[in-house]
Amino acid sequence: MTGNPLEHGRFVTDGGLETDLIFHRGVDLPEFAAFPLVDHADGRHLLTGYYDDYAAIARDAGAGLLLETPTWRANPDWGAALGYDAADLDRFNQAAVELLLVFREQHPDLTVLVSGNIGPRGDGYVAGEKADPDEAADYHAAQVRSLTRAGVDAVHALTLTGPEEAVGVVRAARDAGIPVGISFTVETDGRLPDGTPLADAIGQVDAAAPPDWFGVNCAHPTHVTPGLDGGAWQSRISTVRPNASTMTHEELDAMEVLDEGDLGHLASSLGELRADLPALTTIGGCCGTDARHVRALWGV
């Protein structure tokens, strides 16, 4: 299985799952991890209701629906912090895919793609030590295999802070024979948290292990714009999932209440960003966003 599945239409994707669950639905998510919810009926019901909101947006927009599994934290280091071993994580990852495959069957009128959501080994807002691509490939391989065995259409690494880990994820996906997307996060200056310009990060990954698509997530559209230079590399970006807030990652980390941002400003700034991203097909949200934000981004 190869190729970019996002080339074949427009796709709504979801918003900030974890912040929505915590701040709007009163769910306790230790270590910001949503994947344990798939282990019990109440959690699966909660997740299905969350995804239902985005199916309605896709229907109103006349678009397909890209669903990300709730597995952003379902990797070895974060799993261990929660007391889960490799067997537990394999079960959680596969159960998360099964949940969305059932969801797809329940929405036969929509084109639904199921994407296996892979998070960074580290924090996602803070760049740690520079990763070794081969070590990163080994690290992420088990989760990629679990998601692939369960039947995802692609895997998608989100909120990566440096190109080296991205190369590793792509290599792990290629070994598993599954399409793969890479989404970086950026600071207010358009650079990745490790200081790499967005153009350079995409160029480095494309030179070493090109994914099927790139995206940017967990940053307001006004933070992405400074990273653009009009180069041909911008046509590699298929997905944008912005934060609601214009605050920096450091400021957001210090917040004890949710900054839901300015809905009008978010929509207008995303509209301006669209003009610079000719291959953009897939739009959703990230931290601080919910179905209201994504509906506004789609103008429905």
TrEMBL record:
Ranges of residues in domain Hcy-binding: 1-300
Source organism per UniProt: Nocardioides taihuensis
Entry binding sites for Zn(2+): C218, C286, C287
PROSITE patterns: HCY
Necessary cofactors: Zn(2+)
Protein name: Homocysteine S-methyltransferase family protein
Keywords of the record: Metal-binding, Methyltransferase, Transferase, Zinc
InterPro entries in alphabetical order: HCY_dom, HCY_dom_sf
Top-rank taxon, per record: Bacteria
